[in-house]
Write a structure and sequence with these properties.
Layout (H helix, E strand, L loop, with lengths): L5 E4 L8 H10 L4 E4 L19 E3 L10 H18 L9 H4 L1
Length: about 100
């Protein structure tokens, strides 16, 4: 990645090599990071990511919002309607694509 790049991980902690990311952030090979997930959670209080000025750490709640329950309910109701009608579902996971 270019030195002016930002890394944002709100998916899975294991997707990112955390020691390599920390080193790249320290050395200026990356501009910064926004991290909501980590290899081990909770993030150890002594982890250097806490003290890096170019890192934003959030408490594994990137998907949370005040309207999340309404959105989830709306998607469920729409998918139930689609399922009953024999239509394709919204947001369908395709595990084979993730391999």
């Amino acid at each position: 990645m270019a030195p002016d790049s930002l890394v944002v991980n709100v998916g899975r902690g294991g997707l990112v090599d955390q020691p390599a990311l920390t080193e790249a952030l320290r050395d200026g090979r990356l501009a910064g990071a926004g991290l909501d997930v980590f290899e081990t959670e909770p993030l150890d209080p002594g982890d250097p990511l806490w003290s890096l000025p170019n890192v934003i750490v959030t408490p594994h709640n990137a998907g949370a919002s005040t309207d999340a329950p309404q959105r989830v309910t709306g998607i469920f109701i729409e998918n139930l309607r689609r399922w009953l009608a024999g239509d394709d579902l919204l947001n369908r996971a395709t595990p084979a694509a993730a391999e």
